[in-house]
Specification:
Elements: H1 9-20, H2 24-45, H3 49-66, H4 76-98, H5 104-107, H6 125-138, H7 140-151, H8 156-163, H9 167-185
Helix pairs in contact: 1-2, 2-3, 2-4, 3-4, 6-7, 6-9, 7-9, 8-9
Length: 189
């Protein structure tokens, strides 16, 4: 198959099975095939391209190192999606911890959020990430399902399969996660 053609979900699953069995060539082909999708997932969390590329690289390393943990029951791309989301969140946390406080008067007033990088359910993607960090402290079980459903649009069934929980539990976690997130996302007027 020519390198510029996208692989079907079945072809990606087959590469993943071969890679999980130790086929290094299949792993390399798999990583090349899913890189654009992983980058898009990371850009959903980190709109600044260099940050998203760092997170994507981390996601690809995690995929390569943890391919054995893909169960093979569901689509590989669903599993990869979760790995990429977690890598993007990890990159965000690392960047947040490395940030240094600056004098706002030194740099002028902050710009208003760019609508191209604004979350549908939050004022900005940073607001959403901050809310998820707050919720995760006391209710970590709600964060991953909520992000996978409301930010990345995975179906309840895909989330239940990926997380390994009953469908009803996933729906309840998302409902409770939304209830916890709402007050954290309201603008402070």
């Amino acid at each position: 198959m020519p390198m510029n053609e996208a692989l079907s979900a079945d072809e990606i699953d087959e590469l993943a099975r071969r890679a999980r069995s130790g086929d290094r060539d299949a792993l390399e082909a798999l990583l090349a095939a899913v890189r654009p999708r992983a980058l898009n997932v990371c850009r959903g969390v980190l709109p600044h391209l260099p940050d998203a590329e760092d997170a994507c690289q981390e996601a690809l390393l995690n995929i390569a190192n943890k391919i054995g943990s893909w169960g093979g029951r569901g689509r590989f791309t669903t599993w990869m999606h979760v790995v990429a989301v977690n890598s993007a969140r990890s990159t965000y946390r690392r960047m947040k911890n490395q940030a240094t406080a600056t004098d706002p008067l030194e740099h002028g007033p902050l710009d208003k959020p760019d609508p191209r990088t604004t979350s549908v359910i939050a004022g900005t993607r940073l607001d959403l990430l901050e809310a998820m960090e707050t919720i995760e402290k006391d209710h970590p079980q709600f964060v991953e399902p909520l992000l996978l459903r409301d930010v990345y649009g995975l179906s309840y069934e895909e989330i239940a399969e990926q997380i390994g929980a009953p469908l009803g539990t996933i729906k309840a976690q998302i409902h409770h996660g939304r209830r916890l997130a709402r007050p954290l996302l309201r603008s402070s007027e």
